[in-house]
Known about the structure:
With 349 residues, the chain is mainly alpha-helical. The chain is 76% helix and 0% strand.
Amino acid sequence: MNDPVEERADESRDLYDIASWEPRTGLDRLAISTYRGALKAGRASLVALGLLVLVLILGGGAGALIIDNPFILGLIGLSVIPAGLLALYVYRTDITTDEPATLLAATFVLSILFAGFAAFVNTALGFIQLLPLVGFVLFYFLVVGPIEETVKLLAVRLYAFRDDRFDSVIDGAVYGAVAGLGFATIENVLYITQNIETPAMVLAQSAGGFASQFFETIDAGGQITAVRGLAGPGHVIYSAFAGYYLGLAKFNPDDAGPIVVKGLLIAAFIHATYNSLVGVVPVLVSLIVPGVPVLVLFLGFVVVYDGLFLYILYRKLQRYRAAYSDVHVDADSPRDLVSERTEFDPETR
């Protein structure tokens, strides 16, 4: 969209500082440098703040517990394996170019740092859960889902998104999945250490030796590790959806805002629905089929729920892969693009 003067003016007319602009003077260049410097300072301040919040959270006892009992690191590692494998799968679906390790690592670290923001907001607005009947549902749909998915997307937007190597829509799903993995990792750290840090556990560690510490840790952390291992893949799935739409927004700048919001709405809805149902459905099912351990029913629910949305994500990524293959067919081997798209497009079935 152009100004009316620019639309009607002769091309030879100089419209600098009238209806168009480009850097010409020292003041112009100073304005550009100031703007870019402010953006860099803002990003650096955001990262520093995230680091500070994370240090304060871990300083509450989690960090010291891990140092005193290194076996907890093993439990944390086990808890993130399912989410890590899922993130690896999303990475392998990228049919375009390999994503650089530096961008993947930066996204992972940023998602860990920004998780503290979500923890702070969730705690500050936790009073919503006290509302009768609908408190927990409102908390999940208005706070937990939107906030956690936003901070994960911020981890992608702040660095990888701005890099020229983020060069396709599907890259957004890859970096979104990595952000989900980072968030799941730090969340597992907090949940596992909080559940292990009990008076009995502390007494056993102070009174026993190496073997006692090991077996007490495994006994105390085994169940929570299994639960967190099942919860982690959900974070990868949610943020892969949001990341995909962030990638779509990068290459559709005129509609970038609504596209990003669409991705966040999808991710937040799936996330909040999971949180709302995961504590209720297994218990209700146990009333119908008594005798089955609740942990087993929890596992069944997670597999079915995550499996459903993983399949939807799979179909979305496959549609992109099919379209990419169509437009990169060798010129010496022409194919019927219409028939190919019809074959792969689930909307036409």
